[in-house]
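User: Please predict the structure of the protein below. I'd like the answer in structure-token form so I can feed it into my own downstream comparison script.

Assistant: Understood. Taking the following sequence of 216 residues as input:
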Amino acid sequence: MAYSKSEKTRDALIDAAGRLAAESGFDAISTRQIAELSGENIGSIHYHFGGKQQLFEAVVVRVVEPWLNNPLEDALGGCDLDNRDGQTEAITKLIRREIALLFDPQVPDWHCRIVHSLLQRQSDLQKTFREVFIIPEGEAILNLFQRIDPQIDRLKAIQYRVLIEAPLLLHIDYRPLILEQAGMTAYDENYINSLTETCIQQALNLFSLPERKNHE
């Protein structure tokens, strides 16, 4: 399907607004700055989005699109959560999904900085972020954890989620420092594979789940 001029303009505006917001925060940028960086005119912001706030909402949606387009339910398709091997498979698929989405080389770096900024302070955009992504994604993961171990309460399930996801998020937030220490310019395939295996093993230990029968 052809990529229309209208779609290119929308993408250019979203990318420009996202890059600027990642550096300075949403409150600090103007429509003029967005227009200049995108190479589009100011009027195109209103024409395509209805205004600056709606453009910012489109930025938030763009950041979470990979997760919305790859729902956890689909990733866990075929996992039998009523037996331990199936639960091991589910945890493995959960972590592989998270790593694939977080470390996708096609995703601009500003996406992660936008997420970080949205989590820091309450705002209408944070409300959009929570409603569109944080709440439904979080509930899906917590429900999975309590399905695997019905003995844990909600607070314990939240702790498990933080313990599992923290290493991945730290690799994103502290990417420059970690790469410098590792003597790399980017996370290569071997590093990502090693990180994946480590995180899977830690998660399986957390739930006292059996080893995978077949490692991919």
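That's the full token string. The mean pLDDT is 93.
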